[in-house]
Design a protein that fits this description.
- Helix content is 17%, strand content 37%.
- It has two helices and eight strands; from the N terminus they run E-H-E-E-E-E-H-E-E-E.
- The strands form two sheets. It has a four-stranded mixed β-sheet with strand order 1-4-3-2, covered by helices on one side. A four-stranded mixed β-sheet has the order 5-8-7-6, covered by helices on one side.
- Strand 2 and strand 3 form a beta hairpin.
């Protein structure tokens, strides 16, 4: 078996327009494709995140996340950045709250967490 890399990561959101604004206008991901799927009554937004696609599914009334972040399944989504400090400053200017910056005990790199509009934990890691 030859699994080369991750192709995409999918996220279901509760408010498509708010999440689109967050991921495109605030976090700066570029849109690859945006499609309304009438047979499912939802939106599918494909965003470019380096070499990986981030799929945003706008679904009406999705079930709430069980707990933060220790539920079985996706724990969080981490983004590699050159400087956690600089990225946090940019997020704060956009009124996006971040946890205090800390150092990863295994890598020695700076890291922190913030949340998307539905509370999904997002990490910044150098």
């Amino acid at each position: 078996m030859n699994l080369n890399t991750i192709h995409h990561i999918a996220i279901i959101v509760s408010d498509y327009q708010i999440s689109k604004d967050f991921y495109v206008n605030k976090l700066g991901f570029s849109i690859i494709r945006e499609n309304y799927r009438p047979e499912r009554n939802d939106w599918k937004l494909d965003l470019q995140c380096g070499n990986i696609e981030l799929e945003i599914f706008g679904v009406s009334n999705p079930p709430k996340r069980v707990s933060h972040p220790e539920a079985c399944g996706l724990r969080h989504l981490a983004f590699k950045v050159d400087s956690v400090e600089d990225t946090v400053k940019e997020l704060v200017k956009l009124d996006i709250a971040c946890e205090p910056i800390r150092t990863d005990e295994f890598t020695g790199k700076h890291m922190t967490f913030f949340r998307d509009p539905d509370g999904l934990p997002l990490e910044l890691h150098e």
